[in-house]
Amino acid sequence: MQKFVFLMLVSLLLISFMSSPYCATIIVKQDGSGDATTIQAAFNTASDGDVIEIGDDNTYIEDVTVSPFLAAVGIPAAPLASFTLQAAEGMHPVIQAANAESSQRMSIVGVPGRDMLGFSIWGCQHVVVKGLEIINLENVVNEFGIQSSLVIADCDDVVVEDCTFRGPNERSSGEGNAIIIAGVQANPFRVDNITIRNCLITESHYGIISAMFQKGSGVDPINVTIEDCQFINGFESGVDVDNAENMIIRNCLFDNYHHGIHFAGGKSLVEDCIIKNAKGEGLECQIDTNWTDAITSVTVRRCAIIGNGFESEDAPGVECTDGPLLFENCIIAGNAGPGVKVATDSNSPVNAVFDHCDIYENFGLSEIMIISGGDQSAKLTVTNSNIVSAGGGFENELEPSAVIAHHNNVAVSFDAYYNVDATDCIANDPLYESPTNNPDDFSWDGFKLKSGSPSLNTGEDGSTIGSTGSSVTFINAWEIF
Description:
Blueprint: H1 2-18, E1 25-28, H2 39-45, E2 51-54, E3 59-61, E4 65-66, H3 68-72, E5 83-87, E6 94-96, E7 119-122, E8 125-130, E9 133-135, E10 146-153, E11 156-161, E12 164-166, E13 175-183, E14 192-197, E15 200-202, E16 206-212, E17 223-227, E18 230-232, E19 237-241, E20 246-250, E21 253-255, E22 259-263, E23 266-271, E24 274-276, E25 283-285, E26 295-301, E27 304-306, E28 318-320, E29 323-328, E30 331-333, E31 340-343, E32 350-355, E33 358-360, E34 366-371, E35 378-383, E36 386-389, E37 392-396, E38 403-406, E39 409-412, E40 417-418, E41 422-423
Parallel strand pairs: 1-2, 2-5, 3-6, 4-7, 5-8, 6-9, 7-10, 8-11, 9-12, 10-13, 11-14, 12-15, 13-16, 14-17, 15-18, 16-19, 17-20, 18-21, 19-22, 20-23, 21-24, 22-25, 23-26, 24-27, 25-28, 26-29, 27-30, 28-31, 29-32, 30-33, 31-34, 32-35, 33-36, 34-37, 35-38, 36-39, 37-40, 38-41
């Protein structure tokens, strides 16, 4: 291992001092009219900073590998650190994983056999991948239990945009992924400044996983941004955050995965997303101890979580089991179980805050449920929110002190507060413009309030109750038990 680390550092130094200031464009065309007929051949002749441009609409069946790290230890790879790989204007090429027996890139971490990792970028800096379809259609995992269309490992400053990722459209026996963002080696290697933008991820088991490759042996991804993407028709989580020091998920659509997003560790911010038609929970916050021991924090703002859970025994829209969690200006509607479920477990305390939300006509017996499932503590705060239901409002199995509820409008048909001491609340029809709990008919404007709504200006400090009101940040939301 010491020899491996030494070679990696030498390769980084050589790249830093020998990179050419002149960038070439290398054209790939299968008919031989370009500079190379395969993508890997183009990379093998390229220098740092070069542009690899695919000039046709063909499918390239190959396990493309770019890595100064792997090349330094004798694993076949182009030894580039920085590059752009793009489709020529008007072209729509496909890179399909060959999954060849000779592709054993995981032997570097002691995993034998073909690796099933498709297009792999290891140990690179300053990378752009643009305008491609990248697929892995073989539903087989490697000896470590994973498969992927794209791997971004130990990289810094990578942008993937305007791409489509497609899997085998079958449930995986392990972890089949569209994209893995992973820290494989320990410091001084970094996984930082990774951006996935304007991409379609479809027919994969998992969509995107951000993780330390193996608990205790790599590094956490640092800054990862996923924005303007669509996750459609998958089998597990659209995004699975196992590790990330700063994960941002912004303006994405999640439709028909098992979970829209699963938070298993790290720190995450989710803004302006729609999560609908998930087979299970729309959002799940529960530590996965295979990868991490803590969720640092999760903040969710201006998101719609609607019509989820109908294939998983009445799953809630949002399930909170671990970590400090803050939901602001969200709409949670039409989910098979309660809108919000808070459940203790044996991993860590849970402290969930919902401020200025609309929790509307979910199909559980109550809109908000707090249950005991382990020996850790739970705290739930709900403020300045409209809670509307043909069933009940709050149902609390823990001590009354576990729930803080104030300045809400709870308009329900049965018990508004079971084992909950609420203050400064009202119970009136909020008079929405045109609300719906049907994900196919959802619109943000439907949850605007009509003139004369009892929720206008009756929240804390005169704010408007519901998702159109101004949020209040609670410092105590981030207390660690």
